[in-house]
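Hey all, sorry for the wall of text incoming. These are the two entities for the joint prediction.
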Amino acid sequence: GNSVTQMEGPVTLSEEAFLTINCTYTATGYPSLFWYVQYPGEGLQLLLKATKADDKGSNKGFEATYRKETTSFHLEKGSVQVSDSAVYFCALNIFNNNDMRFGAGTRLTVKP
Amino acid sequence: GAVVSQHPSRVICKSGTSVKIECRSLDFQATTMFWYRQFPKQSLMLMATSNEGSKATYEQGVEKDKFLINHASLTLSTLTVTSAHPEDSSFYICSCGAGDQPQHFGDGTRLSIL
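and here's what came out:
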C-alpha cells in the first residue's frame, strides 16, 4: 500500500542551525509529495510540494527534492529560526486515488 | 483567507452524546472531502472519503454506523460521531482537494468525551 515514513522527533535545534527531516515513501503509481506544517494552535498548511521525480519544492527557505531512486523527499533548511518551531508532516497523494497519506509528523523546536 | 471552514473547533460533552462536525468549502466546489482523525502524537489517519450526493467510502477499521458522514452539497460535509465515548476523544480534521492538487484543510475539531 501507500505509506510515508518520517523521521521521529522531537528535533531541537539552535537558531541558524541546519535542518534535515527525513521522509521516505512507499507507493504504487506515481505520487505527488508534500510537506505540511502545523504551527502551534493552527491547522495544517501546505509548505511545499513536488509532483514528479527530480522536482524540487521550495518555500520560506525550506527545500525538498523528489528522489525516485531512493523514494525520499527529505526536508531541509539552511538556517532555522525560532518562528520555524512547528510540527512538520510529510505526505503523498496518488492522483487517481485522490487521498493523502501522512507521515507521523516531526516536532521541531528552535531555541534562540 | 481560509478556504475551508470547520466547526466547532472544540467540543466537550458527556459520554453517549452525538456530536456533529461541519466542514465547509468557502471558495470552491468540493465534490470530494476527506475526514481524518489524529490521535495524540500520531499522524492524521484517513477515516473516510465523502463524495457529494453519494455514500461515503470508509477506510478499513472505521465503523460506518459510528461515524456518519453526509455530503449533501458541494460546499458542506458533516461528520457525526454517534453515541460518543471517551475512546472517541481525538482531533478530527477535514480537507478538500481535487486530483493531485494540495488539499486545503480545516482547522480541526478537538473532541473530548467525558
